[in-house]
Amino acid sequence: MLEANCLSMHRRKVVSLIETTKCILQRVVFRSFSPSQLFNYLKFISNVWYSHQISGLFKKTYYGIAGGKLIRRIRKMCFEKVVYMEVSWFVESEHSNGARLSTDADSIQHNFTIHTMKKLYDESSQATNDAVGNIKTVD
Length: 139
Prior knowledge:
Number of strands: 0
Strand content: under 5%
Distance between the termini: 61 Å
Order of helices and strands: HHHH
């Protein structure tokens, strides 16, 4: 609850600082420029903003078109390679997806098993050390 109050106080301070800065800048701008100069300046800034937005639209559109053409070209090349490849190429173990997936699955299972066995060994070793360390000898 206390943290929430501190955060809300911090937000209020930031908001009041922003409002104060906004008010000062507004007074400086209105006193520095005549209304006609201010209108011309704002018109210029709005034109710059509109041109920036339109150029961004064109950039994104042409980027999407270029990406689509690139993907189409890559798919065509891959399809041609698959069509014109010999069957013997797929029989080789390094080019076979099934063999590679099987090898990857075996290596992951092997690593997981080793990790699990090491963890169990460490836990049992710790339990054994604790048990042996707490043995009391009778004289």
